[in-house]
Amino acid sequence: MDPATAGSERFPRAARLTRSRDFRAVFADARRHGDRHFTVLVGQGGADTARLGLAVSKRAAPRSVDRSRLKRLIRERFRHHLARLPAVDVVVMVRPVARQCDNPVLIRSLDKLWQRISGPCESS
């Protein structure tokens, strides 16, 4: 059983972008989705499942505690939506306003972005 699709409580390595060439491929040829908190780049999948990469800059969140909170939140929401996402590579970039927002606001924002990515695939 594949842990990436089994609804596991873990965030499996198979669901992560780990190589710089994978990140470059997404940045080079991606569909862009976003709102006031996040920009999400969606590229061709290089695996059987959706994979997540994070780009949380010091400019967006100067304190490491803020960067860590944002990364944990993004990973958690991605994990919840992993089974519904198509096999794409996703890079999430954080905008500076996100560090000042409460978690429930960011969760709603991320959930809408995941739905936007998975929407066309679920309706077919």
UniProtKB/TrEMBL annotation:
InterPro entries on file: Ribosomal_Su5_D2-typ_SF, Ribsml_uS5_D2-typ_fold_subgr, RNase_P
Reactions catalysed according to its record: Endonucleolytic cleavage of RNA, removing 5'-extranucleotides from tRNA precursor
EC number: 3.1.26.5
GO molecular function, one term: ribonuclease P activity
Keyword terms: Endonuclease, Hydrolase, Nuclease, RNA-binding, tRNA processing
NCBIfam families noted in UniProt: rnpA (TIGR00188)
Similarity field: Belongs to the RnpA family.
Function recorded in the entry: RNaseP catalyzes the removal of the 5'-leader sequence from pre-tRNA to produce the mature 5'-terminus. It can also cleave other RNA substrates such as 4.5S RNA. The protein component plays an auxiliary but essential role in vivo by binding to the 5'-leader sequence and broadening the substrate specificity of the ribozyme.
Assembly mode: Consists of a catalytic RNA component (M1 or rnpB) and a protein subunit.
Protein name: Ribonuclease P protein component
Species name: Spiribacter roseus
Gene that produces this protein: rnpA
